[in-house]
Amino acid sequence: MRYAIFGDIHANMEAMDAVIADIANHKVDLLVCLGDIVGYGADPVACVEKIKELDCVTVAGNHDMVAVGMMNPDSFNLFARIAALWTRNRLNDESRAFLKDLPLTATMNNFQITHANLFAPSLFEYIQTSYDAMRNFECQEKPICFVGHSHVPVTLVLKQDTIVFTLDPEIDVEPNVKMIVNVGCIGQPRDENPMSAYALYDSEMKKIVIKRVSYNIEKTCKKIVDAKLPEINAERLRYGR
């Protein structure tokens, strides 16, 4: 099967539309969303409705949980917190119910998905060190775990008790190894590349490709400013930070 796996949309409809248009150029059997549909951006309801329309396999992100009152926003920085509370006040009943019902993890035939990690999915801790990665590998029942959360595409591979990482956008799925694949971010990239990122996974060819897609950043920025959301949430989009 061929999967398109993406996350961290962050209410950026222009980026979401561009990625879905790019996915349409590939023969994909299933769409998978790693959460954080909302937060930061000005189109939370439209992005939730798009995910529902696409019938994605979807897990919850921390911004989704905060937006529906299932998490406290106090751990967020000021600009994220302002956007989260703004979002909370603008979700309709249908979008709110959809986000509340999302699971924290999901298991497919040959991979698992979660927003941040498998070892404590409700805490949304980042996988930043080899120790974090090993904790995830210990909980990982399938060869591959797809994550988001950091907004930076990177792959961690466990080979014979050694963890190596790669930023290569084309990854071969080798036998007898475990992998954590961060697919990057649609709506607010942070690897100094403003283009949206998502992953294509071909389980028969045993290959994962991280794709980059351009979108109308200025239109998104204008929406954020017009909504009186923090202007830094717009400015950082221009630089992929």
Terminal Cα separation, in Å?
Answer: 33 Å
Work out the radius of gyration: 17 Å
Using the alpha-carbon principal axes, give the shape. Answer: globular
Number of helices, where a helix is a run of at least 4 consecutive DSSP H or I residues: 8
Please explain how this structure is put together.
- With 241 residues, this protein is of the alpha/beta class.
- It is built from eight helices and twelve strands.
- A six-stranded mixed beta sheet has the order 3-2-1-11-12-9. Strands 4-5-6-10-7-8 form a six-stranded mixed beta sheet, with helices on one face.
- Strand 4 (105-107) and strand 5 form a beta hairpin.
- Helix 7 runs antiparallel to helix 8.
- The longest helix is centred in the first third of the chain and has 11 residues, at 13-23.
- It starts with a strand and ends with a helix.
- The model has no long low-confidence stretch (mean pLDDT 96).
